[in-house]
Specification:
117 residues, alpha+beta, 6-stranded mixed sheet, 2 helices, 25% helix
Length: 117
Amino acid sequence: MGTIQRFHVGPRLSETAVHNGTIYLAGQVPDDTTQDIRGQTAQVLAMVDRLLAEAGSDKSRILMTQIFLADISEIGAMNEVWDAWIPAGNTPPRATVQAAMANPGYKIEIVVTAAAI
């Protein structure tokens, strides 16, 4: 069966769950909603880096990513930041869609599943 380890457990969600060597991150959103899509994307990817490291992994081990954009027309600017961040040769399967955000200031939310090292 395997143990489930959770990090940053709150009343509604945990930021991270680890089970059988797979790391699941909750949807990550920016802290500073005054930034443009590039700034918000960079913030979220930094959070992903931190959470993966805390769970014993890194971005080269991402198995799947789901990206939600408030405005799909900003995909090009978001991709510029993503492309500079993701290691060449380790690009994961990815889905990117437009979605209504829980906070109107959010331009992006990213969900990641990764393998532990």
